[in-house]
Amino acid sequence: MKFKQTLNTPTKTPNFSIVIFLSLNWNLPSPKTNPKPMAGSSLMENLFQRTLEDLIKGLRLQLIGESAFLSKAIDEIRREVKSTDSDTKANALHKLTYLSSLHFYDMSFAAFHVVELLSSTRFSHKKIAYHAASHSFTDDTPVLVLITNQLRKDLTSTNELEVSLALECLSRIATVDLARDLTPEIFTLLASSKVFVKKKAIGVLLRVFDKYPDAVRVCFKRLVENLESSESQVVSVAVGVFCELALREPRSYLPLAPEFYKILVDSRNNWILIRRTGAKSLLFECIRTVVTSLSDYESAVKLVVVKIREMLVDDDPNLKYLALQALSVVAPKHLWAVLENKEVVIKSLSDVDPNIKLESLRLVMAMVSESNVAEICRVLVNYALKSDPEFCNEILGSILSTCGSNVYEIIIDFDWYVSLLGEMSRIPHCQKGEEIEKQLIDIGMRVKDIRPELVRVSRDLLIDPALLGNPFLHRILSAAAWLSGIYVEFSINPFELMEALLQPRTTLLPPFIRAVYVQSAFKVVIFCLNAYLLQRGNAASSSYIDKLVPDVPGLVSERDDPESSDLASCDSPVHCKQDEGFNPRVSNQSFDGLFAEHGGEETATCGQSRMKKVWGREEAPASQIIRLMHDAFSNDLGPVSVSAQERVPVPDGLVLAKNLEDLETIFGDVQLPSLNSVSLGSPQYEDRAGFSLPILQSKEEPGPSNESTSLLADHRKQHGLYYLPSAKNEDEYPPANDLKLQADTNDGDEDLVKLTEQLLVSKKKPNYVKPRPVVV
Amino acid sequence: MGIRFILMVNKQGQTRLAQYYEYLTLEERRALEAEIVRKCLARNEQQCSFVEHRNYKIVYRRYASLFFLVGVDNDENELAILEFIHLLVETMDRHFGNVCELDIMFHLEKAHFMLEEMVMNGCIVETSKSSILAPIQLMDKMS
Fold first, then answer.
1. Mutate which of B51, B53, B120, B140 to test chain A, going by most A C-beta atoms within 10 A?
2. Which of chain B's residues have a Cβ under 8 Å away from the Cβ of A204?
3. Which chain A residues contact residue B78 at CB under 8 A?
4. CA-nearest residue of chain A to B57?
5. Cβ atoms B138, A161 nearer than 8 A
6. Does this UniProt record's set of keywords contain Protein transport (chain B) (predicted)?
7. Could you report the predicted ipTM of this complex, rounded to two decimals?
């Protein structure tokens, strides 16, 4: 037995002055149905036909599965709808419309039968047919052209219910042709003496004007006249139509402002002035009007902000949400309104409703300025740490987009921002890897002064084996690896960097990111070797070399290895051979491709001459290669504008093919190097960059007891078990932990609010330790 | 357009009434209803009645076992739409007497007629309960 649970028990009762009845009637379901009048039909099929009610009951009781039951029913309907008996046909369409509307069955096959039934003289049939047409006809329904006359007939019927059906249907399905052909009838109905018909004729105009704009010339005057009708229902519909029309093209309706004002002042209609509800919705309408359209009127805005505040502190989540939204709208012009309510806004960041949290996040971001960005971000990062993954990433996304907007416009202290990026990367739920990657590299290229700090942050990320286990961070690690390679000269300890880039857990990275790791490792090696060669050549002219070399004891001691000395003097024929085959494109393909294409030759020559000048004698080929590559790598890469390509003039006589298919025949069997195939162990790699491989390997292998191995041992000690390449346990690494972050996590909401308050109240400019660096 | 669609969905997520004021294919409707129902039914009593979805908003309210969900343009007044939902329920209540989910299931057509009296082209055109019900009572007499 089911009991009837009535609907007049709203589960939430906002500030509406409506009495709620809680009533549970222990009745059997007694739907007030009236059996279909079948008496007129003498056909057998009609006798045994299931009505819609039978179908619904059957659907509730079926045991064969809903879809099986429904497809049987559809088969039945397909038969019945072709019947010559109009009762059977009506019944079938009745069921079909129901199934189409609630169970998504396509009913376009029955379009013609709908048209047939429209012309029925029985109102109950017509009703079903119009409902079916409204629900299923589209602009592309072919039989639509057949209904114009029927609609015209019904629009001019003396039965106002028939007129109403036709108008309703038109408001849903009118096409260009229907709107054009029936405009005269609608025009007539606009002056109908029956309010019931007149208001629907006004309502249908919106669709008619949309489809057939010429109808405006015919009907507009009568539409305007209806604004002054004595019937409030008619005025209400006319106002509704004007609201929609004005949204599309406001200017055209400005001349009607006096009429609208009159209605606003005089009207007592319950829709125009929704009076039933203690006027909460009307009040909100006024607030919306002021914040969107009257925001230049200080007194209006002041009044409205008071009202918004009342809504903001209300217990009703609906009012709170809408108040936050309204504040977002005023924020750009009247930030004071947000600042006045900052406490509530910040507290809402931990509301139970994710929608309210999002709105308050938007508002917090609206408060961000040059002077408080660091403090606000600190508060937000703390919220991010405590939030569910979804909101955490909303917060991170907001920080990234706000700080990154307009080329980091609001960032003065890039040291702080870069370490914030590093900190954000370590938040457990962080999924913003791609954006953080983009910003790290972008800042690296744009802000020269920040590179040492970037390399430090990158080093911290690279060296933590736990981070490699989180796929969301792989893109960030890719950026960190690239930055460490390209700006290796700022590295305090390149050797440590090398260990980080080649640690066993890098196998967890996808191939295209491992490629970046390998290239960066290569750059680090070249840098170290170059430094060593410079020192050995007794010509350490650059200041950083002096600083660097003592820091890399392993590198210096490696001289004793037979392999390294081979390299230095380059007696080995193998190395000479590879020298000839060296191609900068291979090692630079990921990021430096452009440079390698155009700048390689030039740098090579200039590097060579410089070497000769420095050392005053011919160099061994291997040293030359290292010098060459070092120079190639140390050339600065600037950011390239998105429109740069367009500005390159096309040389005379160059014909650019639109289709590059021809290339396939030219390069028929040439295997283009793919990024994904580059990995440490692959034979391809050995072929191309073979000469660097022995060095890389020599660092992995436990060599003779020297400082290099002691460093390695230290690193192993630090990161313990991570060193053994044991594929099985790889995913069980603990999550990245940052003591500093954890300490902050303990701050309560109150502290955050206090902190934010302080920072928002104190208007004094913070003392910048250093001026904003140049951002290109 | 104002109102884009009106849905009545029960606690189990079954659609009991669907009225669209813009053309969507059946597949689009199926996808939209699934997404919206998933989004709204997961929310609890302490949360607000508004959900942003794609490029519009959904205003919803629960009455007993039935959710009333109305998709509206972004410039629509949410509180007014809540009022509209309540008016709809009150109107059905007056007609059916303690209206329940079964009434809507077995008299879907009538529920549609009430909506047609209240909304046209996505605009609210009638808010008087007796005006909404008058033609329906007339139709009852005729058949």
1. B120
2. 120-121
3. 284, 318, 322
4. A355
5. yes
6. yes
7. 0.95
Confidence band for A774, pLDDT divided at 50, 70 and 90: confident
Q: Which residues have CB under 8 Å from A488's CB, separation 6+? A: A455, A494, A497, A520, A523, A524, A527
State how far the Cα of A533 lies from the Cα of A568, in Å rounded to an integer: 8
Report chain A residues whose CB lies below 8 A from the CB of B93: 6-8
Q: How far apart are CA A282 and CA A267, in angstroms?
A: 13
Please, what sign has the CA dihedral across residues A358, A360, A361, A363? Answer: positive
The DSSP code for A255 is: G
In terms of CA atoms, which chain B residue is nearest residue A286?
B77
pLDDT value of position A712: 55
As given in the structure block, the two tokens for residue A519 are 């290239």
Which secondary structure element, helix H or strand E, spans residue A573, and what is its range? helix A573-581
Tally Cβ neighbours within 10 Å of residue A601.
Answer: 11
Q: How confident is the model at residue A27 (pLDDT cuts 50, 70, 90)?
A: very low
A and B: number of Cβ contacts within 8 A: 202
Domain boundaries, chain A: 44-224
Give the N- to C-terminal CA distance of chain A in Å, as an integer.
75
Residues A776 and A445: their CA atoms lie apart, in Å, by: 8
Contact criterion met (CB < 8 Å) for A277 and B79:
yes
β-sheet bridge partners, residue B100: A6
Nearest to A91 by CA among A53, A138, A134, A133: A53
Give the Cα separation of A567 and A572 in Å (integer).
8
Digit-coded pLDDT (tens) for A428-455:
899 999 999 999 999 998 898 999 999 9
For residue A351, give every residue at least 6 positions away whose Cβ sits within 8 Å of its Cβ, in sequence order, or none: A317, A320, A357, A360
Q: What number of residues does chain B have?
A: 143
User: Chain A residues with CB inside 8 Å of B80's CB?
Assistant: 274, 281, 284-285
Q: Which residues pair with B20 in a beta bridge?
A: B5
Q: How far apart are CA B32 and CA B51, in angstroms?
A: 14
Residue A522 is predicted with a pLDDT of 93
Closest CB to B47: pick one of A131, A196, A355.
A355
Which residues 99-118 in chain B show a CB within 8 A of chain A?
99-103, 105-109, 112, 116
Using a CB-CB distance cutoff of 8 angstroms, which residues of chain B are in contact with residue A322?
50, 78-79
Is the CB of B82 inside 8 Å of chain A's CB atoms?
A: yes
Helix (H, G, I), strand (E, B) or coil at A33: coil
CATH topology of domain A44-224: Leucine-rich Repeat Variant (1.25.10)
B3-138: CATH class: alpha beta
pTM, two decimal places: 0.70
